[in-house]
Every structure is written in C-alpha cells, then in structure tokens.
Amino acid sequence: MSTQGSAGFVIVEAEYKGDVVKFKLPFSSGVKELREELSRRLPIYNTWFKVKYTDESGKWILLTCDNDLEFCKETLLASSRNKVVKMLVQHQPEFDEYHPLGYQFEASFNHGMNPFVYVTYRHFVSALVLLPFAYFIERKIRPKLTLALFLEIFVLSLLGVSLTLNMYFTSLEYTSPTLLACMVNTIASLTFILAVILRMEIVNIRSPRGIAKVLGTGVSLAGVMTMTLYKGPALKNIGHALVHIGGGSSVIHEHWLKGSLLTIASCVTWSIWYIMQAYTLKRYPAQLSLATWMNFVGAVQSAVFTVIVEHRKAAWTIGFNIDLWSTLYGGVVISGIITFIQLWCTEAKGPVFVTMFNPLSTLLVAILSYFALGEKLYIGSILGGVIVIMGLYLLLWGKEHDEAQIKLKENEDPKTLIFSSDENNLKGEP
C-alpha cells in the first residue's frame, strides 16, 4: 500500500490466494470501507476474511479496526523508506455456529459498528421504550427510590450491562468463539454454586429432589460441553439459505490469556448479576421500573466508558441499515422484553431456575442457522441439546415443591430469601 497523503488517498495493493489488486482508497476511509472494497474486487464471495499488513520490520500485523488502519497510515507517512506496504487477505473460518451472540448483532459488527457504542445505544433504546410502561403500570406499586436502593441498582447495572457486556465483547477479539460459547453456557452452573454458597438454594442431598437439582445441574453442564467441544457428523442441508450474512471482521487474536480472563470475569459478573436481582426484587418488586433503571444507568455507564476508549465521532453515527435495526431489536426485545421476563421469573422462581434455560439458546441458534442461514448442523449440537434438556427436567422436578418451601420459610422469617428443595420439612412429604 503506497500512500499519497497530499492527494487525499492511499493506493492499496492487496493479495488473496495469488490474486493481486490495486485501487485508490480515500485517506479518510476506515476498515469498513477497506473491507467493502476488498470484497468487491477480490474473489472472496462473501466469505469471512482477515486482513494483514507489513510494518517496517516486515512483520505481518493484523488489521481489525480503524485505529489499526490509522496507525498503519501514520507509520507509512513517517517512514523514510519507500512507502509501500503489502496487504494480505486471508480466509477466516466462519463464526462458530454455537456462539450465543445473535446473528443480527454479528451482521452489525461485521458492518463496522463499534460493540461499545452498540451496548450504549441498545440500552438507551430499551430504557426509552420501557419508561412509559413502567411509569403508568407500576405507578401504585413502585417503592420509593432511596439512595441505598439507587446504589444497589447502580451496581446491578454495572454487573449486568456496562461491565459485563463490554468485557464480553472485548473477549471476542482475543479468544475463539468456541471457548466463549462454552464459558457463557456455564453461567447456569456458576449461578447454582453461588446460590448454594449464599444459601439461596438449600439442597438436601438426602432428599430425592435435592439430589435431582445437583444431578440436573451437572447433566446440563455435560450437555453444554458436548455441544461446544464435540461436533460429530454434519446433517445434510435440506435447501438453500433463506438469509445470508456477509463476510465479517471477526478475528482471533493471539492474546489467549487476556481473552480467557475477560471471558471468565464476564461469566462470573453475569452470575452475580442474576443472584443480586433476587435480593433487589425483594426490596424493589417492580420489574418494569427496575429494568428501566438498569438499562438507563447501564447505558450511561457504558457511554462514559465508550467515550474514554473510542475517540472517533464517526463511531457514534448509525445509518438506516443493519446497525439501526440490530440496535432497535437488541434494545426492545433483548434488553427490554427479555430482561423484564427474566426479572419476573427470578422473583417467582429464583435465579437458578432462570439461568438453567440459557444453554437452550445455543441449541436454538444452531437449529435456526441450519434452516434460515444454511449453515451446518452437527450431531454434537443435537446430542448436547438433548442432554441439556434432560438435565433441565431433572432440575425442574427437583424444584417442583420450592414454592411451598419458600412460603414456609418466609412465614417464619419474612426477611429470608431462599429457594429451597429440602422437602423433609413439608407436611405430607415423605
């Protein structure tokens, strides 16, 4: 790539599987425009690909974002040697089919949207959508918001929105999607362990239902591992894909330790978030209002973080394209409707019950991608999904009489927060 800064453009020389192209790219262009031009000129055919360039020492440097491209340009302009750098385009394996990330978000990130900006906008949208419903529907039941309660919501927003999601998306840059999918699906097991430690779930191992809860959690975890680590033969596609997602910029960096730590940290904070919801709902039993506050405070927190790490004004611009639709979908459906449903279920059944259904989303994503996107569906995902469902049914059977035990405990001590499977204290139970 030879630069002509005074002329306002760069001359890109790129190679892909032996094919070489040269073209002019405006100097103000970012990675999004570069990738679109490469896709148009090279025989990539909308497959996933990554781009590298050579630095002064001849090392290949991965080009993943606008900051990388700006650094490349600055290095070339400051170099005293002939300002020519070769770019190499390589095929990138497709995004892991078991990844829990929604395909609409995947397409948006491929389109060049900053994940941190997405998190911010998504939760602002959710807060605006939920606000009128929360204000009118829960006007009579909403408790007074004290300073202590607001600080609790602030921490909830940090754990469930700004800190966790930004760590999650950052870890995508450093680890494989397989590791991320595996770790995210262990949130149910982590939540169960934390609930037992905090005595929110009292499991009597001498009771059949108590044993079923422990066994169900372990079986579900085994199913998660099966879905993630074992593929097996692929099923034959039954037709053409209904929807196609173009090539993306998802790349795997070689900072495995950093990415693994971020992934583990995000899973732990997510589990703590589910646990903390149950405590907060006891003092603030207004699910719509709580969801609105969490989304608004989380969006503000994420906005502050994004301003610190992302200095380009262009990153905050959203056009009338997939970026807008994915933001609206994420705000209205995921951060809005789904968060409200989760809060309602958490108050009624406890955090362990809610998180045990999370691994099913992985199976649903695999099935959806098979029929709608024409991707391969492996026997491992079906087998693992069946195992997860078996474990889920074991857990549900173990928690069948929890409601009676909860009412008994709360009658004894109204301040007690417990989701128990110890049946021996129930009248009429063996």
From TrEMBL:
The chain crosses the membrane at residues 116-137, 149-169, 175-198, 210-230, 256-276, 288-308, 328-345, 352-371, 377-397. Keywords: Membrane, Transmembrane, Transmembrane helix. The keyword Lipid biosynthesis does not apply. The keyword Cytoplasm does not apply. Residues 9-92 form the PB1 domain. It is found in: Membrane. GO terms for molecular function: transmembrane transporter activity. Pfam families: EamA (PF00892), PB1 (PF00564). SMART domains: PB1 (SM00666). One of its GO terms (cellular component) is membrane. It is a multi-pass membrane protein. Belongs to the drug/metabolite transporter (DMT) superfamily. Plant drug/metabolite exporter (P-DME) (TC 2.A.7.4) family. This is PB1 domain-containing protein. The lineage of its organism: Eukaryota, Viridiplantae, Streptophyta, Embryophyta, Tracheophyta.
